Amino acid sequence: MAITKGAKKAHRASLRKRVFNVRRKRALAEGVKASRATVGKDRKEQIVKLSEAYAAIDKAAKRGVIKKNTASRKKARLSALLKKTNAK
User: Does pTM top 0.90 for this prediction?
Assistant: First the structure.
């Protein structure tokens, strides 16, 4: 446990920041899951969900919840999945 005054303050701040990070990460997971769920459905619906997933991924990367390359990889794999299913 934190002993010094500064360490206690930093711990309180980290607990506050954690709430936002968890919320952002949950939004990211839900966006990706919703986009994956559109496989085999209407193309317009896929585009809308893919756009929402991209926004969630980019926001998570911007805030430092995930790294930039991780965000890029997630977006590439998601678009490749949807492209592959539409080619059939």
Answer: no
